[in-house]
Design goal:
7-stranded parallel beta sheet; 9 helices; Rossmann fold; alpha/beta; about 45% helix
Length: about 260
């Protein structure tokens, strides 16, 4: 039994890159991997948040970058490869909430920015990280952050949902493409995650529909079978599992961490 339990923990020394790793879910994942003895490299568009993470986690490598800028992504991955001596895990985490509104009300620039960050950014990181993962002998994997909106329709949030559905398709395709090289690819689909970001989303949706924040928050919770939000640490725990030896045969999966959101 102890051998099974031991496999549930990622081995120390894993080389992990986490875009958007200085706040929210990304920061929780960075802390979790750091606690296992992983060598962690993060980037984030928020310079102040990057500074806080480097002060909090000794030895973490960090830089400021926009995941939607291909040149900046190229720099981040090249720096990570140099600083870490390679790569074992890419946690493709960068994403924004995007606009709230009817399809005929959305600003095309807001649509494009959402797709650029949430989908194109994942491609930019994967295209540079995969060659490094091919050289890894430590159960290499891509962990892509999708959303419960990547398995359910999401009225008034179409650019976000479109990107998150696309991420699931990308992961399932990468699992087939990269499997012969021993590289796994999975997506995590968080549900309603506690924090400032979901509060902003709820507030925007409440205003779009003309209801109070409190009523909209209760509506979100009624859609969850467990009637509660999940935490960033819940999502981080799933990321650790997917990078562990226990998940060595888990690939091509879209795994919800959401308390079972029934509809959006």
């Amino acid at each position: 039994m102890s051998a099974v339990v031991d496999r549930l923990r990622p081995p120390p020394g894993l080389r992990v890159l986490i875009p958007a790793g200085a706040a929210g879910i990304g920061a929780a994942i960075a802390r979790a991997f750091h606690a296992t003895g992983a060598r962690v490299c993060i980037c984030d568009i928020d310079a102040a948040a990057v500074g806080r993470m480097t002060a909090e986690l000794p030895g973490i490598e960090a830089s400021v970058a926009d995941a939607a800028d291909r040149a900046q992504v190229d720099r981040v991955v090249a720096d990570a490869a140099r600083l870490l001596g390679g790569l074992d895990v890419l946690v493709n985490n960068a994403g924004i909430a995007g606009p709230t509104g009817g399809i005929d009300e959305l600003d095309p620039e807001d649509w494009e920015r959402t797709i650029d960050v949430d989908l194109n950014g994942q491609y930019y990181f994967a295209r540079r990280a995969v060659p490094l993962l091919r050289d890894s002998t430590s159960n290499p994997c891509v962990i892509a952050m999708s959303s419960v909106a990547g398995r359910l329709g999401y009225a008034f949030r179409t650019p976000y949902a479109a990107a998150k559905w696309a991420i699931v398709g990308m992961v399932k395709s990468l699992a087939i493409e990269l499997g012969p090289a021993g590289i796994r690819a999975n997506a995590i689909l968080p549900g309603v995650v506690e924090g400032d970001r979901i509060d902003r989303v709820i507030d925007a949706r409440a205003k779009a529909l003309g209801v109070s924040f409190e009523a909209m928050r209760e509506e979100y919770l009624r859609k969850v079978s467990l009637r509660r939000m999940v935490t960033a640490d819940d999502v981080a725990a799933m990321a650790l599992f997917l990078a562990s030896p226990a998940a060595r045969n888990v690939t091509g999966q879209a795994i919800s961490v959401d308390g079972n959101v029934e509809y959006l």
